[in-house]
Design brief:
Blueprint (H helix, E strand, L loop, with lengths): L5 E7 L15 H5 L7 H17 L3 E5 L7 H6 L6 H11 L1 H7 L11 E4 L9 E5 L6 H4 L2 H11 L6 E3 L17 E5 L6 E7 L20 H10 L7 E5 L2 H5 L9 E4 L2 E5 L6 H11 L5 E5 L6 H7 L5 E4 L5 E6 L1 H4 L1 H11 L6 E7 L2 H4 L9 E6 L1 H5 L9 H14 L12 H17 L7 H4 L1
Parallel strand pairs: 1-2, 4-5, 7-8, 10-11, 13-14
Antiparallel strand pairs: 1-15, 3-4, 6-7, 9-10, 12-13
Length: about 450
């Protein structure tokens, strides 16, 4: 056991082009709220407030920057020519959905940024990172190059950190990152077992897949990431997500299950073979698994998707208890709130507290508290090796709040995305942010 290991939650800052374009097929919230007027400033401040409150509660909190948007370089690769203003205008006229895609602020959901293996689980003792290729949707497929540069800038010391390339961006290796990965252990400083959840098998398999919405993670991608990180068979469990859950809008496993320490909080429709998944975890975990099962009779799939009960943060406390950070929508669904009070808080499990957070701007696009953070378990030595200024404290929170208030619009519609002034505002803001966070040149416009 490594006593000084702490889990750091790196939340993504909401980008300046946060909008409701309805790009995510299979994400019910994104599809439902398409076309609404967004408030990027409010969205970013809501995210920062969540980060600050968790920091003040004693949890280690980090921050990751947004991507450069609009991605005019991507538009040029697709044949749009001229000045930036001309490229944007032509895209708005000829391919408005493509313009919306290259303006997406989806990198705010950093659970999809990468898959991470702590150094204490890796054979070489280093923390391993693989950026997700996110090939299942064009607007997210654009993210990995910048994600890789940002992670390499922050975790730059090769003595402590190892970086792998994103998997080939093909359907066979479709990878959505940590949203389909959970590390279970007795304590963060003890060896863990890695649960990889996939929606379909690209090569072979029995063909049982969702019929309505696409399965975004393949078994082959999960296996490849495990190999990149040097995880052994004894450290890994691969489980198929229930196809009916995907068809109900559970596009990632973290919309239907969340794990922390030895606790796995999950809906009874989370896995295609529930018992086999639990048996595999039990056989490989050195400490007893604590499954917290929510039956469909208590919370329907519809309520689970609408409330994002399982897309909550489950956090360890020094006394061995756990805090569940849920979105405000959980209070709005009677069955969900009753389940939290009567089943989770009153049950025989470590969950002792529920904290409600307002992340409505993110929720309307289909991202709850768990979507907004990438979990990285780090020893004290590894934390000291972090480059830049990305671990949140009061001073950094204050400067980021001021930065948001200075640069972000409080109203943005899909029609505003063609405004060339918005693109310039984003470049100015991100150039300032990269200096504020000490990241160096990570954005395309900074690289020439």
């Amino acid at each position: 056991m490594t006593q000084d290991v702490r889990e750091v939650n790196f939340d993504g800052l909401v980008g300046l082009t946060h909008n409701y374009s309805g790009l995510a097929h299979g994400n019910m919230a994104s599809m439902t709220h398409q076309g609404l007027i967004a408030n990027p400033r409010e969205a970013a401040l809501q995210g920062l407030e969540k980060m600050k409150s968790l920091m003040e509660a004693g949890y280690a909190q980090g921050v990751l920057p947004p991507q450069q948007r609009p991605d005019i370089g991507a538009l040029r690769e697709l044949g749009f020519t001229g000045s930036d203003a001309q490229v944007l205008a032509r895209a708005a006229d000829e391919a408005p959905q493509v313009l919306r895609a290259v303006c997406s602020a989806s990198s705010m959901w950093t659970a999809n940024a990468a898959t991470v293996t702590p150094g204490l689980d890796a054979a070489d003792g280093r923390v391993h990172f693989t950026p997700a290729n996110l090939q299942s949707s064009f607007h997210r497929y654009l993210e990995p190059p910048t994600t890789g540069r940002v992670l390499a800038s922050i975790f730059s010391d090769s003595a402590h950190f190892a970086h792998h390339p994103a998997l080939p961006a093909t359907p066979a290796f479709s990878d959505e990152g940590a949203a389909n990965h959970t590390r279970l252990c007795a304590e963060h400083g003890e060896a863990g077992v890695h649960l990889f959840v996939y929606g379909r098998q690209a090569f072979g398999g029995d063909g049982v897949e969702p019929a309505r919405f696409p399965a975004r993670q393949t078994l082959e991608a999960s296996q490849a990431v495990a190999r990149q990180h040097g995880l052994s068979e004894a450290q890994s469990v691969f489980a198929q997500q229930h196809p009916d859950a995907i068809d109900a809008g559970v596009f990632h496993n973290d919309v239907i299950a969340v794990g922390n320490g030895p606790v796995l909080l999950y809906h009874d429709m989370a896995f295609r073979d529930e018992e086999a998944t639990l048996d595999a975890l039990r056989s490989k975990m050195p400490e007893p698994l604590i499954p917290v099962r929510v039956p469909s009779e208590a919370v329907s799939l519809e309520d689970a998707v609408a409330s994002y009960l399982f897309n909550s943060q489950l956090l360890s406390n020094p006394d061995g208890s756990m805090t569940l950070v849920v979105p405000g929508e959980c209070q709005e669904r009677e069955a969900v709130w009753r389940c939290i009070q009567d089943h989770l808080l009153a049950g025989n499990n470590p969950i002792s507290e529920v904290v409600v957070k307002d992340v409505k701007q993110s929720m309307r696009n289909g991202g709850g508290p768990a979507c907004l953070r990438l979990r990285v378990a780090l020893s004290a030595r590894e934390r000291a090796a972090i480059s830049g200024r990305v671990l949140l404290d009061d001073a950094l929170h204050g400067e980021l709040t001021t930065w948001v208030q200075r640069h972000y619009r409080d109203r943005l519609s899909p029609a505003d995305l063609a405004d060339p002034q918005l693109a310039e505002e984003c470049r100015v803001a991100l150039d300032e942010l990269s200096r504020l966070l000490g990241l160096g040149n990570v954005y395309p416009f900074q690289l020439g």
